[in-house]
Amino acid sequence: MTMDKFLVPAVAKPLDGEVEIAGAKNAVLAIMPAALLADGISEISNVPHLKDMKTMSDVLRIIGCRIDGENHKLRIDTRGANHLEAPYELVKTMRASFYVLGPLVARFGRCRVSLPGGCAWGPRPIDLHLKGLEALGAKINITHGYVEATCEGRLKGGTFHFPISSVGATVNLLLAATLAEGESILQNAAIEPEIDNLVDYLISMGAKIQGRGTRTLIIQGVESLTPGKGETIADRIEAGTFLCGAVITRGRVKVTHMVPEHIMSVLNVFKEIGCDVAIGDSWVEVDARNKSLKPISVTTLPYPGFPTDLQAPLMATLASIEGNSLIQDTIYHDRFTHIAELKRLGADIQLNGNTATIIGGKSLEGADVMASDLRASAALVLSGLIAEGETTISRIYHLDRGYEDFEAKMAKLGATVSRIRPELA
Ligand code: EPZ
């Protein structure tokens, strides 16, 4: 519900427990549009129950697909796909809807997709998506806020060098190149784990892709693909968020059903801060109990560097550690809307350009705050756990986009985060 709020009392004691990590939202958002490349029923497993999955399903349904699923499985039937358009009403709520552009123009030779617009922290350009598709022979026309992409016959294999690492543009081009005529080479492609997950899924559909896990992807286009079947990787950002909870409350959290190597940069930060970090084959435990933690400087970078999506949760965490810490976000220079809200709770943070200085150790007091985006909402919950008194967080529909069963998982760790519905309040 859009008016739902979270009530976050200060935790009575440090978090202590174990949570199972769900499938990765950003992997599913790339894999669902891949189904459009084939005629038939594609299946995806380990899909998290999140609002963004529903939004992407709505986009695919408007295109004419039928979608059903149960217990974390999705089935996407594309045999009715004939309305080659993604409307503004949906694309504006979730930019990943833009991922249907590549597969639609590759398979059907034309489509009309709304420009995604900006987000809470500023403009989010899509120039690389469009330049890349033009390198594959697509004709791009932008009119009335929509991108119209067409091509004569099939797309033509081509080479595209990404001037900067872009997850979304890599997804769109990878999807399109699988059906292009001839060979495509994507240089300086993103290497986030979600891209590998997509590559594996496309190969399950019959795509011919070399260079998995490297910044050079070589795709031999094929005439047609068959429906896919594959499993979503665990959500590394959800895992990192709950582990931040261990650090900020000086507790101990174990995250399971995940891939430790996907968050090595985050684990190194926790070690540098002074936590004990234990790593298993599919679990990680961070122990911050009775530790004297140190301030640090962190810079966000493309994978395998520290992820920008954990910048806000880490900022809340560093605000609890005595001393001056620094966080520089090199991916999104203005992804700092959460600073104003953290300051309402008493945090002392100064922003200079894209670098935040956190004067940590100030005691926090509960207050009414507002979530501005998905990861900022998680940061506010984390700070609420240690703020004296109650913190009320509004607009937590942002949080529901990316964290499955959040309250239940927090309860398992010993925190009573409760959802209040205004009409019931
Ligand atoms: C993906 O967004 C994620 N979203 C984001 O997670 C994540 O923060 C981001 O990658 C960076 O890791 C999904 O996967 C659905 P980019 P995306 O293209 O693809 C610039 C979340 O919380 N750029 O890798 O949009 C861009 O402005 C979300 O789950 C261009 O200049 O990010 C940014 O500075 C938030 N032109 C940089 O590249 C383009 O055409 C990296 O952006 C595209 C991007």
User: Main β-sheet: number of strands, strand sense, barrel status?
Assistant: 4 strands, mixed
Strand order of the largest sheet: 22-23-1-24
Termini gap? 14 Å
What binds here, in terms of ligands, is: ligand EPZ
The helicity comes to 25-40%
Give the helix tally: 14
Name the overall outline: elongated
The pLDDT mean sits at 96
Structural class computed from helices and strand pairing: alpha/beta
Could you name the ranges where pLDDT drops below 50 across 5 or more consecutive residues? none
Strand content: 15-25%
Tally of extended strands?
24
Rg from C-alpha positions? 22 Å
How does this structure look, described?
The chain has helices at 25-34, 51-63, 88-91, 101-108, 127-135, 167-177, 193-204, 236-248, 264-273, 311-318, 338-344, 374-386, 397-400, 406-412, and strands at 5-9, 16-20, 41-45, 66-68, 73-77, 85-86, 110-114, 139-143, 146-150, 159-161, 183-187, 208-210, 216-220, 229-231, 252-256, 276-279, 283-287, 297-300, 323-329, 349-352, 355-360, 368-370, 390-394, 418-420. The chain is built from 14 helices and 24 strands. 30% of the residues lie in helices and 25% in strands. It is an alpha/beta fold and 425 residues long. The strands form 6 sheets. It has a 4-stranded mixed beta sheet, covered by helices on one side. The chain has a 4-stranded mixed beta sheet with strand order 2-15-17-16. The protein is elongated and about 65 Å long. The longest helix is centred in the first third of the chain and has 13 residues, at 51-63. The structure holds ligand EPZ. Ligand EPZ binds at residues 26, 29, 96, 124-129, 164, 166-169, 308-309, 331-332, 374-375, 402.
